[in-house]
Please model this.
Amino acid sequence: MFDNTNIQFELLKKRAFNLRWASVSEGVIPLTAADPDFPSAPEIAEAISAFAKDKYYCYGAPEGMSDFKESIAHYFQTKRQVPVSPAFAFPVNSAAHGIYLTCQAFLQPGDEAIIFDPVDFLFRYSIEAVNAKAVTFAIPAGTNTVNFEAMEALITPRTKMICLCNPLNPTGKVFTKAELTQLANIVSKHGLLILSDEIWSDIVFEPAVFTSVASIDETIRQQTITITGFSKSYGLAGLRIGAVIAHNQKHFQQLMDASLHYSTVNGVSVLSQVAATAALNQCDYWLKGFVNHLSVMKNLVVNELNTIPGFKCIAPEGCYVAFTNITQTNLSSQAIYELLLNEAKVAVVPGLKQWFGEGAEGHIRMSFATSEVVVREAMQRVKGVMGA
Model:
């Protein structure tokens, strides 16, 4: 299911944008945006087709289709041990938009929100887009245990939110229950809100175990907004579908008011909700197979990268990206990116502030959500250029 014969490269070269196959020159292997090369599970296409055959494409309910809301609630209740009311779960136009929407709903100009460094740029972007300030807390790659007491020192009277990315993109760290309990205690002590981005929560490699911060206890659950999506786990990036989960009526209403869903200015495609519902209800077997494949690819990529002079890659606990320290090459992240693109014909993501924050400099990120054939070819090219 996850070998090279199941990848339609000609379709990817026409459809896979966002730094991927349709965005790079012919002959370049893009290990860039974290989006799988594999086609999604067949049940998803079947569900979309079945819905479309009725030929009615009406406006959906502003707060989301009932089947979608119920599937989200069931997922969190059974897989994350988080009691979720379907009434407080609603679809958004991607998890990225869910991050922005939460910042829009709960931050005012001049407020502060703490983000990790490095972390995906969407956190800083969303905070600054609503004229608030992003305050960074360093969590370098390979950090075994995070002492959140150091983060507590960053809290000021202006601090309103802690942005938790778990698993952490780009380093692949999965936070332990003990770490999250410490974080929850600090958040409760200061009366803050947690924005918990859990889009990567299905992509976790043994022996790491994912814990949703909202599962810690009822107190922290009431102070948490959880965001998830379906692009990483099920390959639905182009359908632009994510979910935001509140745990009380007040938070739900703030989010819905900010969303403009009631006015139809914004909203989520009903076909996208049908696809996500099918993914959650019918495609667990596909996801398990995908994670098993990714576990093998992780080991392959990490082992290969660590044979390259000047490269050091710590195996990710989650996410299907390898975050590699290249400081011993004496080249910048941008220089390594350009060298690999021009000489090896392999596209990676450089550790620039615009992508992941200042803590990413001296690193490059590679996605390994592809076949073993593609991974081995890419590693061979990189090793050839870097003198391994």
